[in-house]
Design goal:
- α2 runs antiparallel to α3 (83-114).
- β1 (155-161) and β2 (164-171) form a beta hairpin.
- By secondary structure, the chain is mainly alpha-helical.
- The chain has one domain (6-180).
- It is built from 5 helices and 3 strands; from the N terminus they run αααααβββ.
- A 3-stranded antiparallel sheet has the order 1-2-3.
Amino acid sequence: MRACDKRAGFRSDILESIVWDWVKHVLSDPASLQQGLDEYHADQDKENVPLRERLKIIDGLLEDNNSKLERLVDLYLENEFSKDVLLEKKVRLETNIRALEIDRAALMSQLQARVLSPDEIHDLYDFANRIAKGLNNIEGDLTTKREIIETIDLMLTLAIEDGQGVAYIRSILGNTSMSVTTAVP
C-alpha cells in the first residue's frame, strides 16, 4: 500500500491503521476468511463472464473451422475441386485455426490467473493460520506488513462521496468499504 498524498484529504497513518485492522481481523477469524474468499470467488466469476463468453465463441469457431477442414479433405478425395483451390483453402483454414488456438490459450491463461485454485486456497488458509498468531507482534514491522499485503493482493481505492472520505479495500480475502473521517484541512 502506498502512502497517500495528504493534499488528497487522507492521512496515510490513519489509512494504514484502518487497513491493517481489517487485514488482522480477516486473517485471524476463519469465518471472515471463508466469507472473504467466497466474495472474491463470486466477484471473479462475475468478472470472468466476458472471458468465458469469448471462449465459447472461439470454441465454436474452432469447431467450425476444423469441420470445414475435414470437409475440404473429403472434397479433395472425391476430386470435386482442383488441388490448387483446395490447397489455398486448406492453408487459410489452418491459419485461422492456429490464430484461434492462440487466442484460446491466452483466454485460458487469463481465466486461470484470475481464479484461486484449491491448492492456492489451502495455502492461503495455512498462511492465515501461521500469521494470525503473530499479527499483533508485527505492528512496527513495515517489511512484514508489506509482504502480507502483497500476498493477499490488497488494493486500496480512496474516494470522496457526499463529502465523506471512503476507503475501498479489495483483496483475495474479500472486499469492504470503510468511512474515513480524517480529512486533512
